[in-house]
Automatic annotation (TrEMBL):
Species of origin: Bombyx mandarina
Record-linked InterPro entries: MFS, MFS_dom, MFS_trans_sf, Sugar_transporter_CS
The protein's name in its UniProt record: Organic cation transporter protein-like
Transmembrane segments: 84-107, 194-213, 225-243, 249-271, 283-305, 311-330, 398-419, 431-452, 459-478, 484-507, 519-538, 544-565
Cellular compartments per GO CC: membrane
Compositional bias per record (Basic and acidic residues), positions renumbered to this chain: 44-54
Length: 595
């Protein structure tokens, strides 16, 4: 299990990026020290093993990339801003893989009545004689059954009397649809709701399968190559999907596209965060998440303007091919170059960053980066990994956390993606509903950033869970004719879970010791994908009662909100380096002592 979870950590580029973010969020200490980051050992609490006579020399404090960003290059300058603006475009494009919300949208349908002259599935949906042929349901006419026809009697499209039908009902053998802008119409998926919802589930499965692929490409060939390949795959297989001749082909390319292209967000995310100083990593993280929300808004707008669904998919994906030019426009990640000992190229990128930021990097710092310490802690993870399972079992506190944090992640992804997908069923204006549901994420992200360091991690997370849960449960019992109130409550539920999404990486990483932080953070994130895989299936449950999905979201939210309260507050505490420090979280000894 230890090697498995360690592998998960290395394979998930997005989890690595968020570990970099969360590690930079350590509370401010009386003395300034470089926070831990990707590939850089945490030296914050290590006492210098040097002779007092050498005090004041370079041995006092290690010179790493964070040190150089803070003291010389600038934590956020024109170079970093240019990088963020460039990668914002592929982050926006990474949201386009959610187009199944519209291309595979549910369409109101009813049985086709051939005895009354209906031979095409695109004929008029509403007929004056419809009550004679189809039984009524709670939402109007039944979608999947009709009255059995009487033998030897036929009507016409204009006149179809009651005596043509018997009183017993039978299943439909054909369907009439209200509109044709969905694969449901093209591939005749009436009354196959679970099959229709499979598109979203397979998309989420692809985001799980992409982790080892993107992780390998990113570690072996660099962040820039991983980004270009991911966007190219996203564009290519998305474009092919627009020409699907049957639903099996559509589903196949849905999972292929996400499996080979879903690394777009994580690759771009790492680009944006790796070269930003610790002070600005939180706001950069929130900005990247906001750009994804902007991409969802763009998706909703294009789906609204460009129809049918095949043209919509082509409009979304053809411009993505332009990102191939980023291979020449973007500089490779300095952290990756240093980790691969590509020092000449790293030097060129650092000198370019200094020039663009109008700063200077000293020769001493450059030499320190080009000549990293020879024997820094390389043996530590190797010896620690095999013991992670034994350590978890022996520590009741750590065991409770390992059993608890994945539930938070499952709930967060389940509710977050579930609300986005179910927004299409709010009313007939599915495009506006989706746009509003995605746009509300942006204030949610930044609200979490503003309050995390003020009120604490537990109030932010539990408050977000409870608030979202309350809104979701209330939504299920609001009458359908109160459209505006339903929309407001629904959006507030999404706002609450967006706050949680932003905060979860930080709180999870602060609960685990440095030795196992990457492994257990990645483990929680991987298990959490169960939520994103099952979320697309929830609209099918509305067939039994319209409130089932949101009540499920609410129940999961309340459960996770309560579980948050079982863990210690980490605001104002040191990031635990050892198991003993992690177990002591919440005690006076874990607090930062100010001198």
């Amino acid at each position: 299990m230890g090697s498995y979870m360690g592998g998960c950590c290395r394979l998930s580029a997005i989890d690595e990026a968020n570990h970099l973010i969360s590690s930079s969020l350590e509370p401010h200490q009386p003395r300034r020290v470089p926070p831990p980051s990707l590939g850089i050992p945490n030296m914050a609490d290590r006492k210098p093993s040097v002779d007092p006579a050498r005090k004041g020399s370079a041995f006092d404090q290690p010179i790493d990339l964070d040190h150089v960003l803070i003291n010389e290059l600038g934590q956020f300058g024109l170079f970093q801003l240019r990088n963020i603006l460039l990668v914002a475009i592929p982050i926006i494009m990474s949201a386009f893989m959610s187009e199944f919300v519209f291309s595979a949208a549910a369409i109101p349908h009813r049985c086709r009545i051939p005895e009354c002259g209906e031979v095409e599935k695109s004929t008029n949906y509403d007929r004056e004689w419809l009550a004679n042929a189809i039984p009524e349901s709670d939402s109007g006419f039944a979608s999947c059954e009709r009255f059995a026809p009487a033998t030897g009697i036929n009507g016409t499209l204009d006149y179809c009397p009651p005596n043509i039908f018997q009183t017993n009902t039978i299943e439909c053998d054909g369907f009439i649809y209200t509109r044709d802008n969905s694969v449901v119409f093209d591939f005749d998926l009436g009354c196959q709701e679970w099959l229709r919802a499979l598109a979203g589930t397979l998309s989420s499965v692809g985001t799980l399968l992409v982790l080892p692929i993107t992780g390998y490409v990113s570690d072996r060939f660099g962040r820039r190559m991983a980004l270009v390949i991911s966007v190219f795959n996203l564009a290519l297989f998305g474009l092919i999907k627009a020409f699907s001749v049957n639903y099996v082909m559509y589903l196949a390319f849905q999972v292929i596209q996400t499996t080979l292209g879903a690394g777009t967000f994580s690759s771009a995310y790492i680009f944006a965060t790796e070269f930003v100083g610790p002070k600005y990593r939180v706001i950069t993280s929130a900005t990247c998440s906001s750009m994804f929300a902007v991409g969802q808004v763009v998706l909703g707008g294009i789906a609204w303007l460009v129809q049918p669904w095949r043209y919509m998919i082509m409009t979304l994906h053809i411009p993505c091919f332009l990102i191939v030019s980023y291979y020449w426009l973007l500089s490779e990640s300095v952290r990756w170059l240093l980790s691969k000992r590509k020092f000449d190229e790293a030097r060129r990128v650092l000198e370019k960053a200094a020039q663009v930021n109008k700063r200077e990097i000293s020769q001493k710092s450059m030499n320190a980066l080009m000549r990293p310490p020879a024997a820094v802690a390389k043996a530590e993870p190797v010896e620690a990994d095999p013991g992670v399972l034994r350590t978890i079992i022996k520590s009741p506190i750590l065991l409770r956390r390992v059993c608890t944090t994945p539930i938070w992640w499952i709930t967060t992804t389940f509710v977050y993606y579930g609300l986005s997908i179910n927004s299409a069923s709010l009313s007939d204006t599915i495009y506006l509903n989706y746009i509003l549901t995605c746009a509300i994420e942006i204030p949610g992200f930044y609200t979490a950033v503003l309050i995390l360091d003020r009120v604490g991690r537990k109030p932010t997370l539990s408050g977000g869970f409870f608030f979202s849960a309350l809104c979701n449960i209330a939504f299920a019992f609001i009458p359908n004719d109160m459209t505006v109130l339903r929309l407001i409550i629904f959006l507030l539920g999404k706002f609450g879970i967006s706050m949680v999404f932003t905060s979860l990486y930080l709180f999870t990483s602060e609960l685990y010791p440095t030795q196992y932080r990457h492994s257990l953070l990645a483990f929680s994130s991987m298990i959490g994908r169960i939520g994103s895989i099952t979320a697309p299936l929830t609209p099918a449950l509305m067939e039994y009662w319209h409130g089932i999905p949101t009540v499920m979201f609410g129940a999961m939210g309340f459960l996770s909100g309560v579980l948050i309260l079982t863990q210690p507050e980490t605001l104002g505490t040191k990031m635990p380096n050892t198991l003993a420090e992690a177990e002591a979280l919440g005690t006076p000894q874990s607090k930062i002592q100010s001198n």
